[in-house]
Each structure stands twice: as C-alpha cells, then as structure tokens.
C-alpha cells in the first residue's frame, strides 16, 4: 500500500496545482490543514461543498482520501476526519475524548472503514494518547491505522504511535502539520519526515501477541478499564 501524506497544503492546492504529486498513491492523507473548519449547517444548506470536494478528489485519483477537519455542528465543535473512496464518502470520524477545558467536545465512536485498498482504522488527534483507541481498531481487524493529528508538540505522538503499532500488531501512520510518520508492527519507525508531500510504501502485516496475566489474589480484569 502506498500512502501519500500532505502535511501543509490544502485540498484546493493539491487539486489545482499538485495533482501529479498525489497520483498513483493508494491512500492520500491530509492533516487538519486540508479543509480547516467545516460547518454542517452550511454543508447541508449547499453553501459549501467541502466533503464533496474530498469525494471528487478521491474519484479523480481513484484512491482513498482521508482529511482532518474541525466540524461545527450548530455551535458544537469537534475534531474530525472525513474519508472517501473512489468518489464516495464513507463517513466522518470524530475525536472520542475531550481533554481538559477544550472548546472541542467528544464525538462518536471508533470505526474501521472497509475500503478498496483494505480495512483502515481512523484515529483523530489526541485519541492517539489513549491506548484503547488503537486496541479497539486492531480488534476490529484494521489492516492499518491512520491518525490525523493537529500539530506535533514534543515526542509523545511518535511514542504512542510506535507503542500502539507494537502492542496491537498493526502498522500505524500519522499525518500532522509539517510532519508524517509510519511505525511497523515491531514498533520501528519506517518514516519520519517534515516535507510538504511525503510518500511511503507500507507492507500490510499483522501480529498477535499471546498474553498471560496473573489471576490469583488481588486481581482486576485488564479489559474492565476499557
């Protein structure tokens, strides 16, 4: 699977000026720079066509397109990511956790999308910091997990990316502002860069670790905290 990460340009810029750079990629991933703020009210009213632009781009490229965005649902703001495949919108995933006193609230549940290139799990922004995010998507048989992140601030996003890939036996990719990374199932970084447009070939492979837990004495089921 070849993934093209767009870490700085918008969807319009790629459409009008840099289509050749994205051609022949199986998956095209934008950070939150891709769309900016999307108002559901304006989308439903026909004032804007941001999601349709993603669908059209995926049809033009005959590939999967994933793009981060902030969504405004009649005054309720969420971090989100929209995914389209060959001209069809497959859905919108929201960040499932709300952290501290952010104006962005928690959204819907996690989802694995069945696409023309495989099953893709989507993690939105700081959901990456919660181990259950990647675990749930891996248990739902994701071939690869893609995280659309806001902006790199310290080493933790890459640490959690590597840990999630290793612990769950599924490759993970991250696209943020001016940065992209890919971790394999051994927790190794296959790609880490800051170019505006970065391409990477990812081998779809899975590994399942057999885990034994102490169950005598004081014991709490590991899954009870998820």
In a nutshell, what does this entry contain?
With about 230 residues, the chain is of the alpha/beta class. The protein contains six helices and 13 strands.
Characterization of the model:
This protein has 226 residues and is of the alpha/beta class. The chain has one domain (2-225): Nitrilase/N-carbamoyl-D-aminoacid amidohydrolase (4-Layer Sandwich), CATH 3.60.110.10. The chain has six helices and 13 strands. It has helices at 11-17, 19-22, 40-45, 50-61, 131-139, 156-168, and strands at residues 2-6, 27-30, 37-39, 64-73, 76-85, 88-94, 112-115, 118-124, 144-148, 171-176, 179-183, 189-193, 197-201. The strands form two sheets. Strands 1, 2, 3, 4, 5, 6 and 13 form a seven-stranded mixed sheet that branches. A six-stranded mixed sheet has the order 7-8-9-10-11-12. A hairpin with a 2-residue loop joins strand 7 and strand 8. The mean pLDDT is 88.
Proper CATH architecture: 4-Layer Sandwich
CATH class: Alpha Beta
Strand content: 25-35%
Oligomer: single chain
Principal-axis shape equals globular
Count up the domains. Answer: 1
CA-CA gap between termini? 31 Å
Characterize the main sheet: 7 strands, mixed
Q: CATH superfamily name?
A: Carbon-nitrogen hydrolase
Low-confidence stretches: none
- CATH topology heading: Nitrilase/N-carbamoyl-D-aminoacid amidohydrolase
**Share of helical residues:** 10-25%
Q: Helical stretch count?
A: 6
Task: Explain the layout of strands and helices.
Layout: E1 2-6, H1 11-17, H2 19-22, E2 27-30, E3 37-39, H3 40-45, H4 50-61, E4 64-73, E5 76-85, E6 88-94, E7 112-115, E8 118-124, H5 131-139, E9 144-148, H6 156-168, E10 171-176, E11 179-183, E12 189-193, E13 197-201
Parallel strand pairs: 1-2, 2-4, 3-4, 8-9, 9-10
Antiparallel strand pairs: 1-13, 4-5, 5-6, 7-8, 10-11, 11-12
């Amino acid at each position: 699977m070849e993934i093209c990460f767009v870490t700085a340009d918008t969807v319009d810029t790629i459409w009008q000026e840099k289509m050749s750079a994205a051609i022949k990629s199986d998956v095209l991933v934008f950070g939150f720079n891709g769309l900016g703020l999307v108002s559901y009210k304006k989308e439903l009213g026909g004032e804007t066509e941001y999601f349709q632009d993603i669908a059209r781009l995926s049809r033009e490229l005959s590939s999967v397109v994933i793009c981060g965005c902030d969504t405004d649902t009649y005054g309720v703001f969420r971090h989100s990511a929209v995914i389209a495949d060959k001209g069809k919108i497959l859905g919108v995933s929201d960040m499932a956790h709300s952290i501290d006193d952010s104006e962005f609230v928690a959204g819907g549940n996690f989802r694995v999308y069945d696409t023309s290139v495989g099953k893709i799990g989507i993690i939105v922004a700081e959901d990456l910091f919660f181990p259950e995010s990647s675990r749930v998507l891996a248990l739902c048989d994701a071939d690869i997990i893609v995280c659309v992140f806001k902006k790199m601030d310290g080493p933790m996003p890459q640490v959690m990316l590597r840990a999630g890939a290793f612990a769950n036996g599924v490759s993970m990719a991250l696209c943020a502002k001016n940065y992209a990374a890919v971790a394999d199932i051994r927790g190794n970084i296959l790609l880490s860069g800051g170019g505006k447009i970065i391409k990477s070939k990812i081998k779809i492979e899975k590994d399942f670790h057999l885990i034994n837990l102490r169950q005598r004495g004081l014991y709490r089921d590991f899954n009870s905290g998820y």
